[in-house]
Amino acid sequence: MKKNLTDSKKNRVVVRVPGTSANCGPGFDCLGLATTIYNYLDLTLIRSGKVVVESVGEGAENIPKGRRNLTWQAVSRFLKAVGKEDEFKGAIIRMKNNVPISRGLGSSSTAIVAGLFAANEIVGAPLNRQELLKLATELEGHPDNVAPALFGGFTVSVMQDGEVQTFSFLPRVKLKLIVAVPDFELSTRLARKVLPRNVSMKDAIFNVSRASMLIAALVEGREDLLPLAFDDALHQPYRKKLVPGMSAVFDAAKSAGALGAAISGAGSCLIAFTTLHSGLEDKISTAMTTAFKSAGVTSKALILDVDRRGAQVVRR
Ligand code: HSE
């Protein structure tokens, strides 16, 4: 009995993973940032083939139980990758979720990253974060949410022949993030379905110039260049019809002093950016939720910072 208890303690870890905001305006499928809202995973790897899932918090009632659970799929993918699938055939997965589901704040990425990161810790961390990112990207399909969830900060990711390369940095401009969370979900699949197959050279140049300016301004601490840098011509114009009031919320945020505003990931959340020292976050959040309300959408606001550390062990 005592031995079993010690064993299960040894095979258990609690981790936290930040919610993320992908695209950041012009960086479709390549830019992302980690935020200070967190999901927690208490994972125990077990030898029997049982998968037990318990969750509280955001979306708890709809989170798949058993082997269809996304965190289990990540754990199982990890165990296969390190040749431990015969040693641990099941898991006890306890989740406490604060990140709203299907709103563009990376909830599915937190589930994947938490599973990979926690399982890796339990077996003695054979993979580094870059190697975990590779598995996470394979499971998620694109790197822009899983990269900041793992590394923290602001991330730039490039895909080459199915392999991902990520640069993660802490912006020298201290950003404050204002997220308007509408009371409706938006599936990423639908939000990708409305996008065109091809875009014009003009729109491509519009985005390349802004995405480049955004990174340069954040790395160099050039707040004065940011008002130019958050606009997008590649995905937001097509997704506008899926988020009623989108343009009005962007205008309201900017009129209240935001540096820029964008759809968070594939939506439905809208995110505005200001600086830590502006003191404008309350004014911007009220302007955003009021504009949403005028468009018939109920929303709540989250005021967040950029998470600096990415996935972390909370307790062993
Ligand atoms: N870059 C993705 C998109 C993020 O905008 O579709 C969603 O996960």
In short:
By secondary structure, this protein is an alpha+beta fold. It has ten helices and eleven strands.
What does this structure look like?
The protein is an alpha+beta fold and 316 residues long. It has 2 domains: 2-170, Ribosomal Protein S5, domain 2; 175-304, GHMP kinase, C-terminal domain (Alpha-Beta Plaits, 2-Layer Sandwich), CATH 3.30.70.890. The chain has 10 helices and 11 strands. Helix 2 (70-81) runs parallel beside helix 3, helix 3 (107-122) crosses helix 4 (129-140) and helix 9 packs antiparallel against helix 10 (281-294). Bound molecules: L-homoserine. Residues 22-23, 28-29, 142, 144-145, 188, 191-192, 235, 265-266 line the site of L-homoserine.
Ligand roster = L-homoserine
Computed Rg: 20 Å
The count of β-strands is 11
User: In terms of structural class, how would the helical and strand content be classed?
Assistant: alpha+beta
Low-confidence stretches: 1-6
Q: What is the CATH architecture descriptor of the largest domain?
A: 2-Layer Sandwich
Distance between the termini: 20 Å
The total number of structural domains is 2
Q: Which percent range describes the beta-strand content? A: 25-35%
CATH hierarchy, class of the largest domain: Alpha Beta
From the spread of the alpha carbons, the general shape counts as: globular
CATH level-3 fold name of the largest domain: Ribosomal Protein S5, domain 2
**Describe the biggest sheet?**
7 strands, mixed
Element string (H = helix, E = strand): HEEEHEHHHEEEHHHHEEHEE
The helix tally amounts to 10
Fraction of residues in H or I helices: 25-40%
Mean pLDDT: 95
